[in-house]
């Protein structure tokens, strides 16, 4: 459990400036939702990550890994124990057609780095707002491409604090899923195999995808991105649109008028309101079309105290 000694134990592992007590998690999610973390920690080395995992095991401290919060809803009660963010581990290096990107780097930045070296294969990721670690976690994809198409291997920390190097095949990458959550892995870096290409052709594809994204998605409001996975044989957005749900609100949360697959934080929504609206959309689509919408977005944290 978390005790008064936890802060001192953490400062023995990483710098005090990397540890924040009572941090507002709404400042670290794209939805701008969520309560507070007991301790919000941003380690600077792989060894620090390992030592923090081992501390949480030894002292029985609840432990949560937080990416850059793009595909995540944190409940209003916040998160107990240690919340780990790897944003300080964000280096990207390229050697020939191989790229190594640390987990805290944005996958968008990895895509731009590939472009700068005239490497093709990551164009699909030019508009995905998540981190590299988050992209592996859910096998992120867009516009016909996905992480499994280019991933070679990854370095992770396991549930015991051990450092492992795994091949892409060992992650069981499928549509918007992997075994990373099941295994409790913390991704530290990813190696991608890309191909030589023409700069202008790569940039043209990325510009086109960026235009499609900006013209169709409600990027002017906080949101978690696409809320639901694509049901077999259907499109989630079309089902929601045909259920006359666009514009429906619960508190400050609204089903976007611009893209039915998005729920936006239009006016100071709480996480509870946002989640309630997700459930309302799921019930309505199920009643109208008999299709169960499965969440793509992850919900974590505790409900607010009564």
From TrEMBL:
SUPFAM superfamilies referenced in this protein's UniProt entry, alphabetically: FAD-binding/transporter-associated domain-like (SSF56176), Uridine diphospho-N-Acetylenolpyruvylglucosamine reductase, MurB, C-terminal domain (SSF56194)
Tell me the active site.
176, 226 (proton donor), 296
Which InterPro entries does the entry link to?
Answer: FAD-bd_PCMH, FAD-bd_PCMH-like_sf, FAD-bd_PCMH_sub1, FAD-bd_PCMH_sub2, MurB, MurB_C, MurB_C_sf, Oxid_FAD_bind_N
Which family, according to UniProt? Belongs to the MurB family.
Q: Which Pfam families match?
A: FAD_binding_4, MurB_C
The cofactors it requires, by name, are:
FAD
Q: What is this protein called?
A: UDP-N-acetylenolpyruvoylglucosamine reductase
| Gene that produces this protein | murB
Q: Which reaction does it catalyse?
A: UDP-N-acetyl-alpha-D-muramate + NADP(+) = UDP-N-acetyl-3-O-(1-carboxyvinyl)-alpha-D-glucosamine + NADPH + H(+)
**Pathway(s) annotated for this protein in UniProt:** Cell wall biogenesis; peptidoglycan biosynthesis
Predominant localisation class: cytoplasm
NCBIfam families in the cross-refs = murB, PRK13905.1
Question: Signal peptide: which range, if any?
Answer: none
Which keywords appear in this protein's UniProt record, sorted alphabetically?
Answer: Cell cycle, Cell division, Cell shape, Cell wall biogenesis/degradation, Cytoplasm, FAD, Flavoprotein, NADP, Oxidoreductase, Peptidoglycan synthesis
Q: Which positions, given as ranges, span the membrane?
A: none
Instruction: List localization entries.
Output: Cytoplasm
Q: What class of enzyme is it?
A: oxidoreductase
């Amino acid at each position: 459990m978390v005790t008064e000694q936890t802060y001192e134990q953490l400062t023995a592992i990483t710098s005090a400036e990397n540890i924040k007590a009572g941090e507002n998690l709404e400042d670290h999610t794209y939805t701008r939702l969520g309560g507070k973390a007991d301790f919000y920690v941003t380690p600077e080395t792989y060894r620090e990550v390992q030592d923090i995992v081992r501390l949480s095991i030894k002292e029985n401290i609840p432990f949560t890994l937080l990416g850059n919060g793009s595909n995540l809803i944190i409940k209003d009660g916040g998160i107990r124990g240690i919340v780990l963010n790897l944003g300080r581990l964000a280096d990207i290096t390229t050697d020939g057609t191989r790229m190594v990107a640390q987990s805290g780097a944005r996958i968008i930045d990895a895509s731009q780095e590939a472009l700068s070296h005239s490497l093709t294969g990551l164009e699909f990721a030019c508009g995905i707002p998540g981190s590299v670690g988050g992209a592996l976690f859910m096998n992120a994809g867009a516009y016909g491409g996905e992480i499994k198409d280019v991933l070679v291997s990854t370095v992770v920390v396991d549930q015991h604090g051990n450092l492992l190097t795994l091949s892409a095949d060992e992650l069981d990458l499928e549509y918007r899923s992997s075994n990373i959550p099941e295994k409790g892995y913390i991704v530290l870096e990813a190696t991608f195999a890309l191909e030589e290409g023409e700069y202008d052709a790569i940039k043209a594809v990325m510009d086109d995808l960026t235009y499609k994204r900006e013209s169709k998605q409600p990027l002017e409001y906080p949101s978690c991105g696409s809320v639901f996975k694509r049901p077999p044989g259907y499109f989630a957005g079309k089902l929601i649109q045909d259920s006359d749900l666009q514009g429906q609100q619960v508190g400050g949360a609204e089903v976007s008028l611009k893209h039915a697959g998005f729920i936006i934080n239009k006016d100071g929504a709480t996480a509870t309101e946002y989640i309630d609206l997700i459930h309302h959309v799921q019930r309505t689509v199920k009643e109208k079309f008999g299709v169960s919408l499965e969440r793509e977005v992850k919900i974590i944290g505790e409900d607010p105290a009564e």
